[in-house]
């Protein structure tokens, strides 16, 4: 079933001037499923990082909010995550 949100995510992906994606909504409405499905169907590689379950990952956002520093931290976490068995 194609969802309206999936269409909006594809429009975001195809926008050359896109900004970082923030998905907000009530609990238990399918945000995680939507993003995982979007990643599975629209990208070759996807890494799922959960800041609520991984305190060391959440620490990437502590201190200054320099985007380049945050992206480096997320890239390191993603590489580490790719080398570990999935727990999700």
What does this entry look like structurally?
The chain has helices at about 5-15, 30-40, 55-60, 65-80. The chain has about 90 residues and is mostly helical. It has two domains: about 1-45, no CATH class; about 45-88, no CATH class. It starts with a helix and ends in a 6-residue tail after the last helix. The mean pLDDT is about 90.
Please state roughly what percent of the residues sit in beta strands, choosing from under 5%, 5-15%, 15-25%, 25-35%, 35-45% or over 45%.
under 5%
Count of DSSP strands: 0
Give the overall shape, derived from the CA principal axes: globular
User: In terms of structural class, how would the helical and strand content be classed?
Assistant: mainly alpha
């Amino acid at each position: 079933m194609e969802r309206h949100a999936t269409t909006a995510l594809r429009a975001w992906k195809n926008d050359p001037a896109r900004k970082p994606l923030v998905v907000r909504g009530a609990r238990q409405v399918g945000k995680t499923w939507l993003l995982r499905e979007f990643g599975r169907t629209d990208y070759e590689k996807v890494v799922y990082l959960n800041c609520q379950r991984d305190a060391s990952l959440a620490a990437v956002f502590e201190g200054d909010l320099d985007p380049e520093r945050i992206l480096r931290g997320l890239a390191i976490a993603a590489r580490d995550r790719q080398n570990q068995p999935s727990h999700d």
